[in-house]
Amino acid sequence: MDPDDFGEVLTAAQSGTPWACTELWVRYAPRVTAFLRARGSHEPEDLTSDVFLTVFKNLHAFRGDESGFRAYLFTVARRRLIDELRRRSRRPTQNEWSETADTRRTGSAEDHALDQAGTDWARKMIDSLSPDQRDVLLLRIFGDLTVEQVADVLGKREGAVKALQRRGLATLRRKGAHSPCPSGPTERWQEVR
């Protein structure tokens, strides 16, 4: 979105115009959901809705450009995620499965196994990082945030964010070279080295 368009959309959204709020949702909700899912939210779509409700409720007070808005949005998302993780740690829940309520359909067992193996491998790789490294990389990748914006979201200095990113990528590169993804070729990891 070009800066002039964003300014127009933001001004309209701040006055409560539905099309502008929809535009912000369509543009940023997938990134927020991806970040929340990668960080372990059990209900990333619901949490994304909560994030946007909070953002829209307080949007009238926001002052800034598009990059400032993204930093604000992911700050709210991270705080909501922390709240969810705290709630879960205090009250573990168990959902009952019901065949009639489960509307999911699956593809072939082979496709599912390959997809799951790759997903499990990627999650293990990300989970092997320190929490700070993981947050930095996920905000940079899914949030498409700059180093400065990540520093604002995490409350750290830019130099610290750069160091965390460098160490996190080095760790992934090193572990990926020794533990290739089970569902596909490892050429990508070989290029990163």
Characterise this structure:
With 193 residues, this protein is mainly alpha-helical. The chain has helices at residues 3-14, 18-38, 44-58, 66-90, 109-127, 131-141, 147-154, 158-178, 187-192. The model is unreliable at 185-193 (pLDDT under 50).
Give the CATH architecture of the largest domain.
Orthogonal Bundle
What's the level 1 CATH class of the largest domain?
Mainly Alpha
Q: Strand portion, in percent?
A: under 5%
Domains (count): 2
Largest sheet: none
Roughly what percent helix? over 70%
Return Rg in Å. Answer: 19 Å
Structural class: mainly alpha
Question: What layout of secondary structure does this protein have?
Answer:
Blueprint: H1 3-14, H2 18-38, H3 44-58, H4 66-90, H5 109-127, H6 131-141, H7 147-154, H8 158-178, H9 187-192
Helix pairs in contact: 1-2, 2-3, 3-4, 4-7, 6-8, 7-8
Structure, briefly:
This protein is mainly α and 193 residues long.
Features:
193 residues; Arc Repressor Mutant, subunit A; globular; Rna Polymerase Sigma Factor, Chain: A; 9 helices; mainly alpha
